[in-house]
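Question (not urgent): is this output format expected?
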Amino acid sequence: MNALIQTLAASLPSHQVITDELRRLAYGTDASFYRLIPQVIAIVESEDEVRAVLAAAHRHATPVTFRAAGTSLSGQAITDGVLALIGEGFASFELSDDAGQVRVGPGMIGGEVNRRLAPLGRKIGPDPASIGAAKIGGIAANNSSGMCCGTAQNSYQTLAGLRVVFADGSLLDTEDPASIAAFRSTHGALLGELDRLGRETRADIALAERIRRKFKIKNTTGYSLNALVDYSDPIDILAHLMIGSEGTLGFISRVTYQTVAEDPYKASALVFFPDIRSACEAVIRLKPQPVAAVELLDRPALRSVEDKPGLPPVMRTLGDGAAALLIEVRAADADLLQQRIAAVGAALADIATVEPLAFSTDPATCEMYWKVRKGTFPAVGAVRRPGTTVLIEDVAFPVPMLADATLDLQALLGKHGYHEAIIFGHALEGNLHFVFTQDFGDPAEIERYARFMDDVCALVVHKYDGSLKAEHGTGRNMAPFVEMEWGKQATELMRRIKTLFDPENRLNPGVIINDDPRAHLANLKPMPAAEDLVDRCIECGFCEPLCPSHRLTLSPRQRIVGVRELARRAAAGEAPGELAADYPYMGLDTCAGCGLCSTACPVGINTGDLTRRLRGRQLGGLGRAAAAWSGEHFGAFSSLARLGLKAGHAAAAVLGENTVARLAGPAWRVPMPRAGRAPAVRHGAGDPVVYFPTCGARLFGPTAAGEAQLGDVVQQLLLRAGYAPILPQGFDRLCCGQMLASKGMAAEADAMADQLSAALLQASDNGRLPVVMDASACSARMRTHLAGKLQVHDFHEFAHDALLPRLVIRKQSAPVALHVNCSVKRTGADGKLRALLAACAEQVIEPSEITCCGFGGDRGFVVPELNRHALRHLHDTANEAALASCACGVSTNRTCEIGLSAETGITYRSVAYLLEACSRKEDIMGC
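Got this back:
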């Protein structure tokens, strides 16, 4: 262990100092096309730990980079020194009484902040496309903006205060007078220099005017020099210099935002124009109008998504030079919304459009329009050649010049052979993104990229005096061109600012200020073809907040990074090293395979599919034979499993359940369900419906002795609602194959699914009768397996659609805890589950920040740490307080319910139990 790591290990808990090769590679990868591998990763949970890392970096003369979510696109979140990863200790949230301000830690995800603000009709101003994954630390440090916030509601403009830890370990809280006074005492020289820089800059009329002019459009190139002309108090100057400083001046440990209104009434219009110039003339007309967003899409951008279902047919008939604007207006009430729609119509009255302007207030239609805009970037990424990288560059032009600039940019892309490129952007701010694919494995291709970027920079700066980076941050990508855009005087001012705050150049060196003219061509990330299932991954990190193993071992992005590196080493004839030894546990064993990653992935990758494939490859002959036997003899396997549970409970009656858990290891969870049984077949008169009791509910019975079996409860409900349940012949010997599929045994799992399919088809009269299953994961699997042959209903969906109208429901007064499992989320059936709960309970508690429970079939027994980690937020103060009031918990998968019961101390059951209790005639209520 080298001296730096020893110093960190003496200051931080051992699990927060990461030195293994796999996680240094995977955790050190961001969304950019650059790669640096940190010497060590230090997870920081408090300001004291930040100080400890800074002290260690100073002592050992090592650079340190602070990192939040790593969604950065310009290389500002990577390092070959110490990577200080912001932990959940910085995920703080504090709201003012009037909701006008929100004080948040850098570890909070922007989308989570907005979720908490939404009931109050407020949100934070910045709205980057990555807000569902990006954290406040990165949003503030990069001055991120987005589609609606423009230049008026970004972090710089909505900042109310912050706390910052400086390179020397000192702290300033700009909202605390005592902290300010102390800082003035200890850092008077720094504040005096900032005061002098501000006065000199404001006195230089030409420089001050240039700064103001350049920040009228979006600009994140270099430091926020507008702080020197917008403010005179050095504390205010300092605070606003921190915004957009990309971790090069200090660590932002807390931010207070002025919140902005989230208007409830919205309308969108997708307007097609015969040419770019007409569309850009419309943008100029719309600039002074009360519009929330105006997104420009060129013809190639529209072509990339025109075949998506539900989009206007006219898209496929547009000429090569056509363009579109996606316009959104918002208002506090319906009347004001109509006034704003009328104002837009009047502004565009004499501009030629392909079809008449038409706004829609239908949420589904508006969502479809925005899918057009949001689907363009992944559309390019999805069709790129394996081994290439998809790049998204980000520039801004003065709005009156937007048409000429867009045409010039299209010409440059064609000149350099980027014929697949598309252009779209936030037109109201003159902000254009252009997306293209690039091969960084070929030196000739790298030089082509270099020539192209030189031409782009010359176009943006010399012809239009625009911004080389509008909202993605300077990073490493544009650092060599800062002086080209700003000129020598302003760039020297930036250098003085950097030296003032970080005289040792210890904080994120090479970012924003970089003297190497080819820095943007160095340390390029390899993107080798590895596995066809995931080769389209652009490593954006959007998947990470949904992944139950993120920060325990690896996230989906990080699993793919590891697989790519192993593929690269194999292709190069290099030894796989310790990375290959660590991957089975971190990459495979602790992946829940839930597939929630696919719901956030811009290109729809389900990394669980990769995990299952790789598990199958590593399965030895004996393990494969045992698994295959269990599938072929499922009835015998079920009997053995029940015997094991009965034996365990018999031992627990004598020794105690905790003792059995210690002796049996992770396979015995406390409380452990009792052995299940095949439900008795219940006959009745009524409408026939096929019911298949899934194996999880047959193997694992209720938690408490004497409680009804799930299969009996479901049949009782069907009978009560006037249905006659039909159970498939030999159902206790049947299984959908999910347990084998999760182990990568696709063929064996499909053989099991085929047997079940035959039984279901026979029982349902070849699909004439509906089929109901009582576990969401199994329903989802069989729905896919039987697509087009019969309709499989998850129990909660059938209960919502068919049982509720026939039952008399008395709501339970005590709160009920709800867990929406990953299968329900992935299939989009969560709305019906919540509606079913609302019909049965006066109050439903859905704990925050819980995605997949991490039980993952048998993962909760094999690697229970995954289940505990996935549900760790259940133990947050607010969640624990809410759950303490709950009479019970409900979900729709038996294994999920086992893990939830173990973690909360509340008994979780199928939602069927709650519905049965609430629909009884006798006065017996409760779940």
